[in-house]
Design a protein that fits this description.
Blueprint (H helix, E strand, L loop, with lengths): L1 H4 L7 H21 L4 H27 L7 H12 L8 H4 L1
């Protein structure tokens, strides 16, 4: 499928790439900016990055599950309009 090839090989590839870039940028910046034992810095950095990028994780998961939209921005808009802003908190506790 042409659509899959342009999505890095699977449905949700674009959203996955966007989430990973954001997650890694936040995690590295937070880790470098904090002080203390490395395990505590790592936990704080990963936790913050997970919370901030979780809405994009919801979009990635919905796209990978075969929702109609493959464009991450259009999917975000549709989720907000049809399911409300609370949809972006679904699964957050399990991720963090």
């Amino acid at each position: 499928q042409v659509e899959c090839a342009s999505s890095f090989g699977f449905q949700g590839g674009k959203a996955h790439a966007l989430r990973e870039v954001g997650f890694n940028a936040i995690q590295l910046a937070t880790y470098d900016a904090t002080h203390g034992p490395s395990w505590a810095r790592g936990a704080a950095a990963a936790g913050l990055a997970a919370v901030v990028t979780h809405p994009m994780d919801v979009v990635k998961t919905r796209t990978a599950m075969g929702e109609d939209q493959t464009n991450p921005l259009a999917m975000t808009r549709d989720l907000w309009l049809h399911e409300g802003p609370g949809v972006f908190r679904l699964g957050l506790a399990q991720r963090v």
